[in-house]
Amino acid sequence: MAKAPMRVAVTGAAGQIGYSLLFRIANGDLLGKDQPVILQLLEIPDEKAQKALAGVMMELEDCAFPLLAGMTAHSDPMTAFKDIDVALLVGARPRGPGMERKDLLSANAQIFTAQGKALNAVAKKTVKVLVVGNPANTNAYIAMKSAPDIPAKNFTAMLRLDHNRALSQLASKLNKPVADIEKLVVWGNHSPTMYPDYRFATIDGKSVKDSINDAAWNKDTFIPTVGKRGAAIIEARGLSSAASAANAAIDHVRDWVLGTNGKWVTMGIPSKGEYGIPAEIIYGYPVTCENGEYKMVEGLEIDEFSRERMNHTLNELLEEQAGVKHLLS
Ligand code: NAD
Ligand code: LMR
Predict the structure, then answer these.
(1) Smallest-distance ligand from the CA of 160
(2) Could you tell me the CATH number of the domain that includes residue 92?
(3) Best label site of 222, 228, 277, 326, fewest CB within 10 Å?
(4) HSE toward the beta carbon, residue 241, CA cutoff 13 A
(5) pLDDT digit string (tens) for 3-20?
(6) Where along this sequence does the record place binding of NAD(+) (predicted)?
(7) Do residues 106 and 227 both lie within one domain?
(8) Is 148 exposed, middle or buried (CB count within 10 Å of its CB: 0-12, 13-18, 19+)?
């Protein structure tokens, strides 16, 4: 018997990430090739944005996706989030050249307060939320704090793009396929302070750290290349990453819902104090996923270099959190 459709809300549906994301969701890449979906698409009320959204929906229709069981356009999160199982919160202002993601904080904080409240009011209490819009960790924190009736663990931020970027850098350094690498972590904030950490990673079962054996490459090349990749793409394209961001969003939610078979992935999730990170900070952690739940990989040894990096990215998150405190009272 066919499965009942799942409802997926996507905000910023007419934006660049939306254009790379929606077709893949409708094709079954997000929730499985046997899982029908209903898309509930949110854009700002602006006439141009709504018209663009209508155009994207015409294209979705023209794909005749067998799994697309319905779609609706919205300008109000209170209708867009009604009864949803999954929320992909993409809609936000992207940064331009020379800006840092935290420069977007005040512009985007209001959006995530309103959307958190709407999720609380009308989404399923089991809704899985992924925040993509930047600054993603703090926006996820704002949405989580604005939705007290939904479990905090259901609010996550996207560090999967950083995880995937780090995988590719390592595969290229070692001249091996990406798929052979396991047990990579990206700790902290989705910002240049993030700490991609391959100390536990293996390739074909062998230690990546031992295979590379170059602390200077780690510190001076690998960590900054991964951390500044978003800016490098903006510099090259004149626009922020879109297809790779959409791909990472698919990876994140698919793994959360369908499981990772024991593989580690990075998710930005609310801390419960693990690894010395204060509770409620949305921090990039290594997790495995099974039966629709993520589980943190605990007990990893944190050396002095790593602790310093992890604190650096934590301090930035604490600063961002202090900057939005007034909005959460
Ligand atoms: P975009 O400008 O092309 O599209 C954003 C869309 O969101 C626009 O169509 C806009 O009208 C809409 N929007 C704005 N406010 C909204 C609201 N309140 N409700 C609904 N829709 C709203 O931008 P994009 O390139 O698609 O990027 C979207 C966001 O994703 C940006 O914040 C960007 O920085 C971020 N991003 C994050 C990652 C990550 O790894 N976490 C990666 C890439 C991009
Ligand atoms: C990215 O990492 O590509 C995105 O967060 C977009 C940006 O502003 O860098």
Answers:
(1) 1
(2) 3.40.50.720
(3) 326
(4) 18
(5) 999 999 999 999 999 999
(6) 12-18, 108, 115, 132-134
(7) no
(8) exposed
Please name which of 136, 125, 95, 123 lies closest in space to residue 240, comparing C-alpha atoms: 95
Which amino acid belongs to residue 205?
Answer: G
Distance between Cα 227 and ligand 2 center (Å)? 10
Asked whether residue 306 is assigned to any structural domain, the reply reads: yes
Helix (H) or strand (E) segment spanning residue 256: helix 243-258
- Taking the C-alpha atoms of residue 219 and residue 43, their distance in angstroms, rounded to an integer, is 41
ipTM exceeding cut-off 0.85 for this assembly = yes
β-partners of residue 282 are: 270
Grouping H, G, I as helix, E, B as strand and the rest as coil, residue 40 is: strand
Q: Up-side HSE of residue 259: CA atoms within 13 Å toward CB?
A: 4
What backbone torsions phi and psi does residue 74 show, to the nearest 5 degrees?
-140, 155
Q: Establish if 299 belongs to a structural domain.
A: yes
Kindly report, residue by residue over 12-57, the tens digit of the pLDDT.
999 999 999 999 999 999 999 999 999 999 999 999 999 999 999 9
Structure tokens at 26: 């409708």
- Does the model's pTM come out above 0.90? yes
Which of 10, 43, 102, 250, when mutated, tests ligand 1's pocket best, judged by the most ligand atoms within 8 Å of its CB? 43
Please give the tally of structural domains in the chain. 2
